[in-house]
Write a structure and sequence with these properties.
Helices cover about 70% and strands about 5% of the residues. It has 26 helices and seven strands. It has a seven-stranded mixed β-sheet with strand order 1-4-3-2-5-6-7, with helices on both faces. The radius of gyration is 27 Å and the shape is globular. With about 600 residues, it is mainly α. Helix 6 packs across helix 9. It folds into three domains: about 80 residues, no CATH class; about 325 residues, Na+/H+ antiporter like fold; about 120 residues, NAD(P)-binding Rossmann-like Domain (Rossmann fold).
Length: about 600
């Protein structure tokens, strides 16, 4: 047989030479010149888009595609983007926009409702930080290095949690509010740590940082009570103007935070909270979302560019121990603390699952430690690798949260005798319940209003505490939770139920719900909701009696309105009357719930 080694050797040499040439060409483009920013962003977006298409075809999370894109274009593989400081700056803007949107969902009343979560978050930081510190000391690290590692492992990623909760439309759930409250506290502690551990540390810094934060909050409060409502009411008349004013408000507070030597992301978050009580927050969020998504993609790609070496053989034990701390110990401790503070086991476990990664601030701390010579390059690479793995793993863990809850709830059985006094919301009358309504916001409110004469026979399940409180005031039987919560479903006598209505848009939740309902009551009439036609067809296959597609129905209704417009084109008075009737209907619908 002929020796073909020279062929394979030549091919490998050609491949290596091609990759080296390609990398050199891109390096020349991205390392200098007036088009540095344009070329760097072009490389990031193109590679991220290609990988996102591949991941979507494989039905995987897009976050994973962005991180892999960063690894490919970063120094670990091709080294196409050299200006990592530029990418880091863009990533920080992405974090600021994400926290602004999170702030829109966290009004002062909502923060007050979960104020206990701040204390729980402080306990979580202390416990995880102390455990990491002593483990690091046992592994041979010095005290200062161990302190850095303790903070790095204790913090979790606000940007990951908020993005995932926002994408799954769960920002209004109780476990989301608790998690975000904990993360806000972590971010504040992280900012203090960043300044405290720098070379410019002074003993008065902590007091000054608190005063600066209070000053920004007071300015936001003052603007909220004086001019914000009027300014945004005027701006709302133009989509373009509303977008511009919203962006300006974000940058105003980001710049204010920067001037006061605080992180711009804290300023952006406070800006969001200041606008949270305005009636225009939904429109503001919809206008900001595309810009936010662009910068967030830059952030996830930037993660991969931070990894300069994949050789962790020297730190294999450290890597495994820290990974276990982040993925298993931190969620368990967080869930335990939240449960002790009076929340249900399920809420506690979901809160813990949301923070099973390390933070973007952890990476900044690690980089600062590397620059100051406290952390070695090998330790830094290990931390970055842990960040990449845990951030990529988080969406998958949240997807199977119900399964994890069912398998791990027994770990908290020793706390069964502790009261659940912070989540005891809901109301129930003794009347037999024949109609189940899953999800009462928007479309659910329409159903509830139409069935108001039968309200004694309706039982509502919703995971928004505000909606549950509103329903309780009206004497409508309701409970906080969702269809995957067995504790909630056990409260219902399923054999008495004739009709089940689900306004939940997620195909996974509806699939589980339909199968559960069919198993417990085969004769029940099930009306479900879907966002896509193929999802509707799938729900029909597994047992739904009727599936509502809101977009299809809204299109049909719009067609009817167009026909009315044509009919009334010569008599605008009749169309004005129809418009006024619609406005009155919307106001009545809003008042019905709130």
């Amino acid at each position: 047989m002929a020796d073909l080694s020279w062929i394979t050797g030549g091919f490998i040499s050609f491949l290596n030479g091609s990759i080296s040439s390609l990398s050199h060409s891109f390096t020349n483009l991205t390392a200098g010149g007036n088009q540095t920013l344009l070329i760097s962003i072009a490389v990031i977006i193109i590679v991220a888009a290609i990988l996102a298409l591949i991941m979507r075809s494989l039905k995987q999370e897009l976050i994973l595609a962005y991180i892999i894109a960063g690894l490919i274009i970063g120094p670990l593989v091709l080294g196409l983007v050299k200006n990592t400081s530029l990418i880091a700056a863009l990533a920080e803007i992405g974090i600021a926009f994400l926290l602004f949107v999170a702030g829109l969902e966290i009004s002062s009343q909502k923060l007050k409702e979960t104020s206990s979560a701040f204390v729980a978050g402080l306990i979580q930081i202390i416990v995880i930080g102390a455990a990491t510190f002593f483990i690091s000391m046992a592994l041979g690290f010095g005290k200062i290095e161990a302190f850095y590692l303790a903070l790095i492992i204790a913090f979790s990623s606000t940007i990951i949690v908020v993005k995932l909760l926002s994408d799954s439309r769960e920002l209004n759930t109780l476990h989301a509010r608790i998690a975000i409250s904990i993360l806000v506290l972590q971010d504040f502690v992280a900012i203090i740590a960043l300044a405290t551990l720098s070379s410019h540390y002074t003993n008065t810094f902590i007091i000054l940082a608190i005063m600066k934060l209070a000053l920004i909050a007071l300015i936001a409060f003052f603007l909220n009570k004086t001019i914000l409502n009027g300014v945004f009411k005027f701006a709302s008349s133009s989509t373009e103007l509303l977008f511009l004013v919203s962006i300006a408000f974000v940058f105003l507070f980001a710049a204010l935070a920067y001037v006061l030597s605080l992180s711009i992301v804290i300023g952006a978050f406070i800006a969001g909270v200041a606008l949270a009580n305005l009636p225009y927050k939904a429109e503001i969020e919809s206008k900001i979302k595309p810009l936010r998504d662009f910068f967030v993609i830059i952030f996830f790609v930037s993660l991969g560019t931070w990894l300069t070496s994949f050789d962790i053989s020297k730190n294999a034990l450290i890597f495994i121990i820290f990974l276990v701390l982040v993925i298993f110990v931190k969620p368990f401790i967080t869930a335990l603390v939240v449960r002790i503070f009076g929340y249900k086991t399920r809420t506690s476990i979901l809160t813990g699952l949301g923070i099973c990664q390390i933070s973007e601030f952890s990476l900044i701390l690690a980089l600062q430690g590397l620059i100051l010579g406290v952390l070695s390059q090998a330790t830094f690479n290990t931390i970055v690798l842990i960040a990449i793995i845990t951030m990529a793993l988080t969406p998958y863990l949240l997807k199977i949260s119900s399964l994890i809850h069912s398998k791990s709830a027994s770990l908290f059985s020793f706390l069964d005798n502790m009261p659940v006094y912070r989540e005891d919301i809901g109301h129930r009358t003794s009347t037999k319940k024949t109609i189940l309504l899953f999800g009462c916001h928007r479309m659910g409110t329409i159903f509830l209003k139409a069935l108001s004469k039968l309200k004694e026979n309706i039982f509502v399940i919703d995971y928004n505490p505000e909606i549950i409180r509103a329903l309780t005031k009206q004497g409508i039987s309701c409970v906080y939770g969702d269809s995957s919560n067995t504790e909630v479903m056990e409260q219902i006598r399923m054999r008495d139920v004739n009709i089940a209505i689900s306004t939940i848009p997620k195909i996974e939740d509806n699939t589980l719900l339909i199968r559960m309902l069919r198993q417990t009551n085969p004769s029940i009439f099930i009306l479900a909701t879907a966002e896509k036609i193929h999802d509707a067809l799938m729900l029909y296959e597994i047992g739904a009696d009727y599936v509502i597609l809101p977009h299809v129905i809204s299109g049909e209704k719009s067609l009817d309105i167009i026909k009315e417009v044509e009919k009334f084109s010569r008599d605008k008075g009749k169309f004005t009357k129809m418009k006024e009737e619609h406005i009155q209907y919307l106001e009545d619908l809003h008042r019905f719930l709130y």
